[in-house]
Amino acid sequence: DDLADLRRKIEALDVGSEERKVGIREWRRLKRIPQGSVENGVIRSYLEWLTSVPWPSNSTTTPLDILKDHSFLTRARAQLDADHYGLDQIKRRLMEYLAVVRLRALADAAQTQTQGDNPSTDASPGAAPTPPTKSKGVKGPILLFVGPPGTGKTSLGQSIAKALGRPFQRISLGGVRDEAEIRGHRRTYVASSPGSIVQALRKAGRNDPVILLDEVDKVGHSNFHGDPAAALLEVLDPEQNHSFNDHYINVPIDLSQVLFICTSNTLDTISAPLLDRCEVVELSGYTYDEKMHIAKRFLLPKQICANGLSDSQLTLTDDALLHVATMYTREAGVRSLERAIGAVVRFKAVEWAEWLDKENGAMGEEWNAKQNENRSEKQDGNTNVNGSGKEWRAIVEAHELEKILGIPRWDGEERDREEKRGVVYGLVVTGMGEGGILPVESTALPGTGRLKLTGSLGDVIKESGEIALSWVKTHAFELGITAGRGVDPLKVPDVIDVHLHLPAGAQKKDGPSAGIAMICAFVSLLSGACVPKDIAMTGEITLRGRVTPVGGIRMKVLGAHRAQIRKVILPWANRKDVEHDVALEVRREMQFFFVRTIDEALDAAF
Ligand code: ATP
Ligand code: MG
Questions:
Q1: The pLDDT value given to residue 122
Q2: Closest CA to ligand 1's atom 23
Q3: CA 277 – CA 144 distance, rounded (Å)
């Protein structure tokens, strides 16, 4: 009857469809093969898989609900707002996207209706499995969420699925080297199985889930296990994905109804063809102000609930939250913040539990009996009140944090800067996507005009150093780098070696954006003038003395603001980034110098 069961499932598949033909063929083979043999098991599990793929016939897809529901967009917006604070531009973009999804569904439905008049439904036997209702409208682009860790990419994907009322599945592509992980192993291979796409479809149980392809930037490229990136392209390409071929299932599967969303931490490592198919939505990170709101409205309630407390019992003062964010985390997103808040909440949960035990112990048997009585009446049983009506509450203030979280990890180290000859502050974005300032240190020692560079520097940043020194040498006279004693100014740099260092020495650094900071450091070193310590700068330089634009402006400016830098020197061409991406309250507290040339940069710095 096991066989009969499989047979029933196969017969439920569309008449005339490929999957049904294959299913019947395999089922007949299975019948002939003795039970308990390896082959028998292999075919059996194949048929289990084959019949559990959500084919059009056994998928419960009903796009109709989003058609009939005229408040769909309002509800969708409410869903996005309920799950995420801020991100206004991104939410607007997602709403456009959802509106298009709905309009397309409407168009499709209209098309099906006109076709419904001539009886081309599955009933006619032997009808070729051509899907006449295939969406002719333009397929919406695939969304690609790009941003540093913990900025809400994955959870936005979840939110979209909820808004659409579709199941959500996540496929992690990080470190996928083998094409078979996406596309499945051929059945000749022992213990073979379908790839992650089919597995996700099966778990979703519908052919139109939202599938989040996590970390597409970390998928492997062509190697001797095949080419996972190419498989991924096929999955995402609307021209091809209506007949996706999983090697294990070996019957084309229609993925055209699946809503794919990709996430990635950077754009740098994504292949051009993939990027070309995606619409990039950038999540660049939160300001402290935004983090405070997110913490209060989302992270703290979530952690309180997860640890069995109730909202009314535990409060963190604003001061304490800000303290956690600034002193214990350094990130663009909010993941470490969430973790740190979780640690605080757990600490308090333990105190509460101990308090309960103590109080209850003191009350003895009588209390326990009464407690049980209460339980049976009130199922939620979450008692922050003990038998005598005493309540347990806690307010966590900033000064308590050291007891709970230990010594702050980022104790204002950026704030005690020094104003010193040869030292200038540059702006950086770290691997975590967090902006900050970085001292550029230079010193001179007797030598022959060479440049020594240290601090785990990459090739590009080293070249910036060379350009900077060459420029300073050729302009030594105008810069007044004469060093007195009647020496030919151009020759001064030749009797010294310049050593440039970027701490922290173990952190890899690269990129051209330290250019103007290096120039200023050298000028300061050779002229003896200091750059004030509340100035920081970023910008690429050219040998001809131009300053060209750089990336990461938003996070750099936010990092500088946090470090209490009040004057920032930036390339002229980055004006728009400051205006678009930096919150007004931050901009108001800072002064920006937009420069086109190195001369202008020096004017602003000295
Ligand atoms: P990664 O690149 O590491 O995968 P991610 O961008 O996918 O990071 P998420 O897992 O989506 O990060 O977010 C981390 C946590 O922060 C989640 O709990 C999420 O709900 C929360 N979060 C992020 N942004 C917001 C926001 N704007 N409002 C509320 N919660 C947020
Ligand atoms: Mg994620």
A1: 42
A2: 152
A3: 9
Reported for 356-365, long-range contacts at CB under 8 A and 24+ positions apart, including other chains, are 356/383, 356/386, 356/392, 359/386, 359/387, 359/388, 359/390, 360/386, 360/387, 363/387, 363/388
Angle formed by the axes of helices 88-116 and 153-164, nearest 10°: 30
The two structure tokens encoding residue 441: 């240190």
Question: Phi and psi for 537 in degrees, rounded to 5?
Answer: -150, 160
Which pLDDT tens digit goes with each residue over 289-303?
Answer: 889 999 999 999 999
Backbone angle region of 238, left / alpha / beta, with phi > 0 → left and psi within -120 to 50 → alpha:
alpha
For the stretch 234-284, pLDDT in tens is: 888 888 888 899 999 989 998 888 889 999 988 878 888 888 888 888 887
- In the numeric block, which tokens belong to residue 152? 């809400």
Query: Average per-residue pLDDT in the chain?
Result: 82
Annotated catalytic residues are 513, 556
- State the Cα–Cα distance between residues 153 and 214, nearest whole angstrom: 9
pTM for the complete prediction?
0.75
Please give the distance, rounded to the nearest whole angstrom, from the Cα atom of residue 510 to the centre of ligand 1.
27
Name the residue with the closest Cα to ligand 1, atom 21. Answer: 152
| Calpha distance 155→157 (Å, rounded) | 5
Cα–Cα dist 497/503, whole Å:
19
DSSP annotation string for 511-549: -STTHHHHHHHHHHHHH-----TTEEE--EE-TTSBEE-
Q: What is the length of the chain?
A: 606
ipTM above threshold 0.95: yes
Instruction: Check pocket membership of 153 for ligand 1, CB cut-off 6 A.
Output: yes
Which segment of 166-175, 233-242, 420-429 scores lowest on mean pLDDT? Answer: 233-242
**Ligand 1 pocket test: which of 89, 155, 270 has the largest number of ligand atoms within 8 Å of its C-beta?**
155
User: Can you give the pLDDT at residue 110?
Assistant: 78
pLDDT band at 196 (very low <50, low <70, confident <90, very high): very high
Q: Give the gyration radius of the chain's Cα atoms.
A: 32
Q: How many Å apart are CA 73 and CA 79, to the nearest integer?
A: 10
Who wins on pLDDT, 330 or 92?
92
* pLDDT higher than 70, residue 137: no
Burial class for 581, CB neighbours closer than 10 Å (0-12, 13-18, 19+) = middle
The residues, any chain, with a CB within 8 Å of residue 45's CB and separated by 6 or more, are: none
The residue among 201, 191, 190, 180 whose CA lies nearest residue 247 is 180
Tokens matching residue 187:
């059945």
Q: For 103-132, what is the mean pLDDT?
A: 58
For residue 590, the SS3 value is: coil
- Which amino acid residue places its CA nearest to atom 9 of ligand 1? 152
